[in-house]
Design goal:
The protein is mainly α. The protein contains 18 helices and no strands.
Length: 312
């Protein structure tokens, strides 16, 4: 037995050695295929990071990034001491956290429900219906929401009232989160549906033989099959809590719902592009990114502790 194991190890080492020799011999070929992707990544991902220096400078367009006077952490102190800081931060966190709590389980539930449909034709039609909203652009979606919730829209006609829901700060979060779930949940369920197709058929048959009910089958057979994907998706989504899309929040924003709809990304747009305060807006955006990284590392650490050391 040991002899067979040693032979397998030596064969594996020999295979890796041969692969390494082949790569060294033909490194130009690999470089040729990797070069376009590397160049695009460097040009559009890494070079723009030099612009982060603007967050520490009194940026002047004529003098440029390297010639503008240095102000250090002045913009960060200005933002953190701003009376609106907590309002924008809490609006961002509330939209993200509530969206995660309400939206994260929905694709999983959809995938579990789809997995119970036995007829292929019906299953494909249901999948088509729940996937379609994903292909609606954010701006078109926001236009549909505004029309549906307008004082003369379908919702008010059904309820027999004439409320302008888009002017109510208390309704903005519900509108934002509900429309996001409707648009993205079906498409997000694809990976869970694919993972469920690889669930052990033997375990399913054994559970049926043992008299397991529907909930027990889901808990002991189907959920373990998608556990790793659930963990990874939760870490990624929790790590992006501060990265709310600017387009949708801005498109649903009105002068009346600003107390609830003004978040960090819309604040950066307003200060940077509309008011021309580039250094300050860059500092706010950098603060947002740093918080995101910290949250990602923290959530990954917590999940590793709760999931037997398994994380990203």
């Amino acid at each position: 037995m040991k002899r067979m194991q040693n032979q397998a190890k030596s064969a594996s080492k020999r295979t890796w050695r041969e692969k390494g020799t082949y790569v060294k011999k033909n490194w130009q070929l690999y470089l040729f295929f990797l070069m376009p992707g590397l160049l695009l990544t460097i040009i559009f991902k890494y070079l723009p990071m030099g612009g982060l220096l603007i967050a520490f400078e009194d940026y002047n367009v004529i003098k440029g990034v390297l010639g503008s006077p240095w102000v250090g952490l002045e913009y960060f102190r200005r933002f953190l001491s701003s009376p609106d800081f907590m309002s924008y931060l809490m609006n961002t966190l509330k939209l993200s956290i509530y969206g995660l709590l309400w939206g994260f389980p929905v694709p999983i539930i959809l995938a579990l429900l789809l997995n119970r449909i036995q007829k292929t034709g019906i299953k494909k039609k249901v999948q088509l219906l729940i996937y379609m909203p994903n292909f609606i652009s954010v701006i078109v979606l926001c236009g549909m929401v505004r029309m549906f919730l307008s004082p003369v829209g379908p919702l008010n006609k059904v309820l027999g009232i004439s409320t302008n829901w888009m002017t109510m700060p208390s309704a903005f979060r519900t509108i934002y989160i509900a429309s996001g779930i409707w648009q993205a949940a079906g498409w997000a369920s694809i990976m869970y549906t694919a993972a469920l197709s690889n669930a052990s058929k033997e375990l399913e048959e054994a559970a049926l033989m043992d008299g397991a009910n529907l909930l027990q089958q889901i808990w002991y057979v189907e959920l373990p099959a998608i556990k790793n994907i659930i963990v990874i998706q939760f870490i990624l989504q929790a790590g992006n809590i501060m990265s709310i899309g600017f387009e949708k929040a801005y498109a649903l924003q009105t002068d009346m719902n600003l107390p609830a709809s003004e978040i960090l990304s819309t604040y950066v747009y307003r200060i940077g592009l509309l008011n021309g305060d580039y250094g300050y807006s860059t500092a706010v955006g950098l603060f947002n990114s740093v918080v995101n990284v910290i949250l990602l590392v923290f959530v990954n650490w917590v999940v590793q502790k709760l999931n037997d050391g398994e994380g990203l």
